[in-house]
Amino acid sequence: MGILAANIVAFGQPFQAYMYPDAFLTEHGPVSDWLLVAQFVIIDSKMRGLFTLLFGAGLYLFMERTWARGGTRWRQIWRLFILLLFGLIHYYLIWAGDILLYYAVIGFLIVPCLKWGAEAQLLTGLIGFVFGALLYSAMLTFPYLVAETSLGEQAQFSEVREGTLEAQASALADSNVETELIRSGDYAGVLSHRLSEHGADPIGNVLIFALETIPLMLLGVALYRLGFFGGGFPSRKMRLWGWTGLIIGALLNFGIGLFLMSTGFGYYAMLAAFVGWSSIPQLLMVLGLAALMVEYSDRWRGELAERVRAAGRAAFTNYLGTSILMLFVFQGWALGLFGELSRPELYLVTLLTCGLMLLWSKPWLERFRYGPLEWLWRCLTYGKVFPIRR
């Protein structure tokens, strides 16, 4: 549900609008500006970070069970290969914001590390993440300084500034082409454009996010093995670490958000903030959120809690199912709401869709052992048909 809150802008507006509010096809006034800051502080990168952390933990959990049955890491490799195929279908036929494909590819890199010691995994993850954060910040701060500050007005940077601004214009022009195809209802044209102009983007995503995703997956593996997710740490420490990480990270992100607002949410400032500057606050918040969710989840009871847990147990189906549903909401050949809804209205779509996840997941899992796609992935992983009905 948090992933949808992060992605909804890229579903309902041009993809560039995810980070650059000037790309909105509707007015992006003061209310939307503050909502953007709120999303930047609370949602962006944090939901993906939690997803990545848990994906790493899931890799080791799967291998624990496989090793107990006498299996090897090749079963995990095959399982990730199937996920890669799901990701290819998702990216090329449904939505260009797919995350499964590059999770599968990076998962291949994590599998050889699963037999490392937990401390080595933890240390490598932490050092790797900090190194990536510093590298991303260094790489992306320079384009911001050249394109959007007085530094670029100096003679020695004039050529670099021109090239940087041309790259921005080219990206926005490409986004306009895709917008027209979506609004016209030309689904075949959208797929053709994605294949011809963005066919190699999944490889680029792997390279861009590798120094975030590999460390976070390793951290997820290490924390799982150290008992973090199973109540193996003292409650007092979990609450202290959780609230400290969450509050400090949120305050740092809020400061970055205010700076972005003061700059008018410039294209390269937003890029640097999303990918580089917010990385360390992101890590603090992701680990803080994870600690607090572990600490407090057992105390959460009632109908809503059961429905949220059920939605999580059907996360694969809910993730891909949401993308398919958004096609029918926004594409020109369906409801045609692409580019028509403001940021607050897009958040309303998010709430309604999350409500739908909560509505179907619990009754389904009361009757069936797995979500539909969870069942299919399991069957393909083991090469046999498992009973699905309870």
UniProtKB/TrEMBL annotation:
Domain DUF418: 223-384
Highest taxon of the lineage: Bacteria
InterPro entries found in the cross-reference section: Bact_Transport_Assoc (IPR052529), DUF418 (IPR007349)
Name of the protein: DUF418 domain-containing protein
Keyword annotations of the record: Membrane, Transmembrane, Transmembrane helix
Alphabetized PANTHER family for the sequence: INNER MEMBRANE PROTEIN
Transmembrane regions: 34-62, 77-94, 100-118, 125-146, 206-228, 240-261, 267-294, 315-334, 346-365
